[in-house]
Structures are given as structure tokens and as C-alpha cells.
Amino acid sequence: MADWSVDDWYRAGRVVLYAEMGVAVLVTAFALYMALTGTAGVFG
Amino acid sequence: MTNKVEQLVIATVGFFWAFLLWFSTAAFSPSIETAFGLTTAQLGLLASSAIWLAPPGRIAAGWAADRIGAHNVFAVVLGYAGLVSIASAFADSYQLLFLERLVVASAGVSFVVGIQHVSQWFDEHEIGTAEGLYAGTGNAGAGVGALLLPRLYGADFSTAFLHLGVGALVIAVVYKWRGVPAKTAARAAEAKSNSSMRDTLYVWTRYTAIALMLAYAMSFGLEISMNAWLPTYYAEGFAAQLHGLGFTDAVAVQTAAGTFAAVQSFNASLWRPFSGYMSDLWQRKGWTPYPFLASGRSYSPRIHWVLTALLLVVVSMVSLTVAGLAGYLPASVVVLAVFGVTVSFGTGGVFAVVPLVFEDRPGTAAGFIGGVSTAGGIVYPLIYGGVPNVHLGYAVVGLCIFLPFVAFYVWAMRREGSLASDGIGTRDRWLGAGDSAAGGDD
Predict the structure, then answer these.
(1) Helix (H, G, I), strand (E, B) or coil at B39
(2) How far is the C-alpha of B335 from the C-alpha of B332, rounded, in Å?
(3) Which one of A32, A37, A42 makes the best mutation probe of the B interface by having the most chain B beta carbons within 10 Å?
């Protein structure tokens, strides 16, 4: 495998970190919905 | 052939699974309580036991990573934890289950091994983002466990422990096969040569190391204390609200409380790479906003970013108490999310600095800072549960413990002096005068 240049990996790393922040926001929204309605636990 | 991205991915997957193993016991606490007829005290013991082995284990694991290579240490940790997790699926008594899960929980020591591994592959200007991606994604294992395991397995914790153990064995084999300890053989040899007892004591006695350890106790120590405590907090502190929302039986309360706990865990974990990125950004821009902190050290902007995080952590602790006393569950969830983000700023910020301050002793330094700080996960829940009102504990910890930690951090980081002289005993005292050329931490 060829080594990535710093810019390439750093750009990809930033995409991953933004995606992870998005997941955290989604989980928060899900929990907030559950706290408000009690019905979000349909998967439980 | 390999490259740094492959090594980062291997370390991250390994740590994610180790964290999943570590906190999978807590995810099934109510089911285990029912299956074995545990008392509240026994359940509390089981929950707290997850952290017991972390402080000494991480110190030893960090040193071992410098000594024999991270890939070897990580494979061993995942291997024994996986085997014992499989055995725990067949435990027929609480005593046996307790002992086996204690061993499985020790998989959490692998954190410092991966920190050392990543630091041996990435360069100074990108280390914050790399360590953040490793640790943040790995930490998410706790949140994934709290959120998904009860939904996937219901009350069947035995099958979950079996599957998690098999997964750990597979990852251990891959880690050993594809893992390479450092970018160059010389770099690996340098870490190995700086892993004596004197090197360890030198690191432990630096004020900068102690300050970063306290900062990590305020962030990661806090994060794991909350992982263990929050399900109990929401089940007790918001019992009436949960009942009113329809969560009445044990499994429903377990699922709801686990979901709220996951808000903290996910935000604290998944914002951590962003914190590492911010540390890199502050370093690139040269931002040093606090006049009372040193600004002349080569890594000073990163030190300033950590202080920002620590101050935000204290504010969010008090806010969590206020939201709890208000008794409004949705407000508590929102504050908890913000709280998790501030915690991530601390965890990501600290380990964006550690490999740079101790570039020749990354494992030993990570073991000390990442290990001793974990004791916070044992101490804080005692305070949360010890105060008269279940909501007050956060403010008590924030104001009575964390503010003195911040004061020490400011005191330790205020001087421009070198690492060699700024500690208990000089570099020469610990390493001898002839080591100054080889050390290079300064």
C-alpha cells in the first residue's frame, strides 16, 4: 500500500470527525425525542 | 507494506472493541441483577469493579508498549479478555461472573497502548487529529454498548458476552498480523531504550505530567464515572418522569436510562476527534489567549486549548445540577449533551499534547496520565451517591475537586521553564547527566 500524503489523510480524517459529530447529534436528538414522548424506545 | 492510516484503523478498531468489552457489563446491569438476585450493594460493586484495574493496568500497559511494541501488547490484552468474556457467558454464580467480568474490564488498559502506537506513526502537526480519531472512535464503544446491546440481546447477557469475546479474539489475531510498532525501527528502539524505572519516575515527577494527569481526571475520569453512574442517576433522579413516559418494568427502564447515558458517552467520544483537530488548529494559528499561562513553549497553544476545555467542564457540571434540580428531563438531556462535548474537549486536548511533551517516552507518559486519572471514575460516583440530593453531586465535584485541579494546571503551566527542571528533582537527578542528549523530551 502506498503511503498517503498528509493532506490526503487529513482531509479524510476531517470528514470522519464531522461524520462522528453528526452521529452524536443524532443520538442526542433520539434521546431527546424519547425524553419528550416516551415512544422512541420502539426498538427496545 | 503498511502505512500510518492502516495502523490508525487497526488501533481504533481494537480500542473500540476493548471499550465495548469494558462497558458491556454495565449495559446489562438490571438483567444481571435479576438473573442472580443481586442486592443493590452487589450491583454497585459489579459496576465499580469495571474501573478497578485501569490505573495500575494502564501504567503497566503503557510501559510495556514502549518496551515490546504496541501490536504485541494489544494482541495479548484482546486475546485474554476475549477468552475470559467467552468463559463469563457460562458463569453459574455471581462470584464467578464478578471475577471474570473484572478480568474482561481490564481490556480498557489498551487505551494507552493505542495512544503510544498512534504517536509512533504520526507527526507533530497532525497528532491531535490522529489521536482524537483513535480515542474518540474507540471511546464510542461504551456508548454503542449502552445503546445497542440491550436492544440486540434483551436480557440475554450470556450470548452477548460470548459474541463479544469471539470478536475480540478475531481482532487480536489481525492486530498481531498487521500491526507494526512504529514508523521506523529507530523510533521503536528509542522508545524501548527510554523505558527504565528511572525514566518512569522522571515522567511521573514532572509538573506538566501531573497537571495533564489532573486535566485528564477532569475529562476522561469524569466520562467513565458518568458511564457507570448515569443509568442509576436517570432511573432514580427522574423515576417519576420515566414512569410517566411509560417506562415501567426493569427492561424498559434499563433501555431508557441506557439511552440517556449514551448521550453523554456518544458526545464525549465522538466530539473528541474535533477537539484534537482544534488543538492542531490552535497550534497552527499560535493562539495563546490566557496571559497567565506560558506562551513560549513549543506546544503552548495546545496547553491554552486544554484550559479552555477545563473551564467549560466546570461550568457544565454546575449546569447539570441546575437542570436536574429543575426536574425537567428534556432539559437534563440537552445539558448532558453539551456536557459530553465539553468533556471531549478535555480528553482530546490532553492527548494532543502528551505525545509531544514526552515524545521519547510516549507509552510511559500515556500510562501515567491515562492510568492514574482513571481513579476519578472510582471516586466521583462515591460523591454522586453520597450527597443528600442525587442532583447535587455534579456541582460538588465541579466546585470542590475540579477548581483546585484547574488551579494546579494554571500553576504548572504558567512558567516558560523547561520540562527537565520543572518538576520534583531535575532531569539529571533521575536520568543522570549523561542522558541529556538522548532524552530529547524538551
Answers:
(1) coil
(2) 5
(3) A32
